[in-house]
Amino acid sequence: MASQKKRIVPLWRNKKIVPIVLQIIFVLVMGTLLWILIHNTRIGLNRMGIQFGFDFLNLRAGFNINEAMIDYGTNDPYGRAILVGIVSTLRVSFFGIILATIIGVVVGIAKMSNNWLLSKVASIYIDIFRNTPLLLQIFILNFAVFLPLPVIQEAIKVGPFYLSNRGAVIPWFSGNENTWIWLILIVIYLVISISIFNFLMKKEIEEGKNIHPFLSAFSTFAFLSIITFFIIGVGPVSVIIPDHTGTAVTGGASLTTPFLSVLLALTIFASTYIAEIVRGGIQAVPKGQTEATKALGFKSATAMRLVIFPQAIRIIIPQMTSQYLNIIKNSSLAMAVGFQEIVGVGNTVMNQSGRTLEVIIIMISVYLFFSLTTSLFMNYFNKKFQLVER
């Protein structure tokens, strides 16, 4: 019997070739549109006599920045000024993410508490600040909370902190010659403590007995640190306590009114959404898990720490990413109260140099870089917490 001829599939129906061809067409179309956009932009700029380039970054800035985390003066170039704005954006976003996460988790769990008063306070907190525009919260904190405070000569002392209409002065740290040695030892002690925690946690789960893994790990870290302190003779850093001289506050770290207004507003606003994400993630855990912990005699706090929250975090992390990105992007509202982050500095550079397009490209690139970096980190973190299916 003659062998049957192999059936030939037409190219337009080939499941391997068609997707590749479509992707090539898509890339060509998008590349053509991008080239047309760039070409038309260059023609328009040439007609208006405007040059495109980033050589202006080397020109003298000539303007002052009130709150710079790195060395900056009016004689520095525009590039240095923009770098100061980038650092300020990173500063307020970084601390905003940390504080919003802590407050959001606490408020989210508090809203589910059996304590009626605690649950209602958490609900009121969420309802008020989540339904109020962020810009309005920044204005209220800046103009109604911090600016009405006494002048610096009559600064209010709250413990080691000083509050005035200029902002707050808080204790800060100063390194010494043994700081690097301490950093290396602290990393080693953390690795040892985490190893102890993981070992005891695994043993606790296997035996079903509470052997306090966190307390044991923390005690190990504290014991090693204390022994090191007595051997070296000094701590890793020196704490500088602010002191009021009568006309000013010296020492410590100064946090200006605009920075505090923006940081607290971002923290409070984002924490309300994070609280709801945490509450939703916990409630998404099957009720059978909670009932099982009660049947095994777990306390509510222990059940939340060991059983409920580790499962809820798999649901929480993807949604938290969006809130972190919102904190980074919403930091641009800081220019409304005079805090000079990348947008505030960028607007000044645009007005002085006339290089609007170039500065806008820089600002877009900065936010894109911060957002993509945050997304990559959170995606990695999310992957580590996902269940591995066999």
What does this protein look like?
This protein has 390 residues and is α+β, with helices and mostly antiparallel strands. The chain has 2 domains: 11-47; 78-171 and 241-385, MetI-like (MetI-like fold, Orthogonal Bundle). Helix content is 65%, strand content 7%. It contains 11 helices and 8 strands. It has helices spanning 17-47, 78-111, 116-130, 134-146, 179-207, 213-232, 257-284, 287-295, 300-330, 342-353, 356-385; strands spanning 156-158, 161-164, 167-170, 172-175, 237-240, 243-244, 249-250, 253-256. The chain has a 4-stranded antiparallel beta sheet. It is globular. It starts with 16 loop residues before the first helix and ends in a 5-residue tail after the last helix. The relative contact order is 0.12. Pfam families: BPD_transp_1 (PF00528). Keywords: Amino-acid transport, Cell membrane, Membrane, Transmembrane, Transmembrane helix, Transport.
